[in-house]
Amino acid sequence: MQEREDDSDVAFFPLEGTWLSLYPRKSLAEDATVTADSSGFAGITIAHNVSTKEEVDAVLDEAEAAGGRVVKPAQEVFWGGYSGYFADPNRHLWKVAYPQLTDD
After folding, report:
1. CATH number for the domain that contains residue 63
2. Where is the VOC domain (predicted)?
């Protein structure tokens, strides 16, 4: 997992059994490959971490089969993981990620 720099505008808060991560709206939209304006992007995403890259692909396929829309196909990402995004039928964005913590 990438460590954040002291001057980063990202904040992480450990909670019981999960994390709350806060990113600037523009950065979050850029990661999801959507526009940051108010044309359908609520300014939040829900992240779901899985154990393997294959699970990322499977969850995105399952979401699409259930009526979701893949907005960013899964791909290797700069922080060393693998992730993609889908919008559920209510247009909420979900990030599905394999947060590679060690070298495979």
Report:
1. 3.10.180.10
2. 1-99
